[in-house]
Amino acid sequence: QGHLVESGGGLVQAGDSLRLSCVSSGRAFSRNDMAWFRQAPGKEREFVAAISWTGAITHYGDSVRGRFTISRDNAKNTVYLQMNSLKPEDTAIYYCASDRSNPNTELRTSTHDYDDWGQGTQVTVSS
Predict the structure, then answer these.
(1) Which of 7, 30, 35, 44 is at a distance of 20 to 30 A from 72, taking alpha carbons?
(2) CA dist 88 to 25, 97, 124, Å?
(3) CA dist 115 → 41, 62, 75, 94, 101 (Å)
(4) DSSP string covering 46-110, please?
(5) pLDDT tens per residue, the chain (127 residues)?
(6) What pLDDT is recorded for position 34?
(7) What is the pLDDT, as a whole number, of residue 105?
């Protein structure tokens, strides 16, 4: 079980880029699939992207595919989310999460499958 801390959020204009980081204090980080979710005011938490524990497999939500890239550095216990071509509808609190118990090779996209969560970092995109 690890403590997750996100950073890198902020206020940007449409079309700009941001890179979010999430550092884990857990010793099992390199064996866990990791994901980013986001939650806008009044909406449910939404899957954004996930990455396998090796980093070889990634999966994206339809609304961010082609604009966002998830990556990880297991030596630094860190997962990243590079966000390009940001849109006002990307405005949300972004959370990273770890999946400690995925029995399959397919990455999971439901919040219920993720065990540990960070506190979130706010991303605001102005038009």
Answers:
(1) 44
(2) 32, 23, 7
(3) 23, 23, 21, 16, 8
(4) EEEEEE-TTS--EEE-TTTTTTEEEEEEGGGTEEEEEE-S--GGG-EEEEEEEES---SSSPP--
(5) 669 999 999 999 999 999 999 999 988 899 999 999 999 999 999 999 999 999 999 999 999 999 999 999 999 999 999 999 999 999 999 999 999 988 788 999 999 999 999 999 999 999 9
(6) 97
(7) 81
Does residue 68 contact residue 37 with C-beta atoms inside 8 Å?
no
Surface-to-core class of residue 126, CB atoms within 10 Å of its CB (0-12 exposed, 13-18 middle, 19+ buried): exposed
- The owner of tokens 């939650």 is 39
Distance CA 73, CA 29 (A): 10
- Provide the token pair at 100: 């400690």
Phi and psi torsions of 45, nearest 5°: -65, 135
Q: Give the list of residues 6+ apart from residue 56 with CB closer than 8 angstroms, or none.
A: none
CA distance 41 to 102: 29
> What single-letter DSSP state applies at residue 14?
T
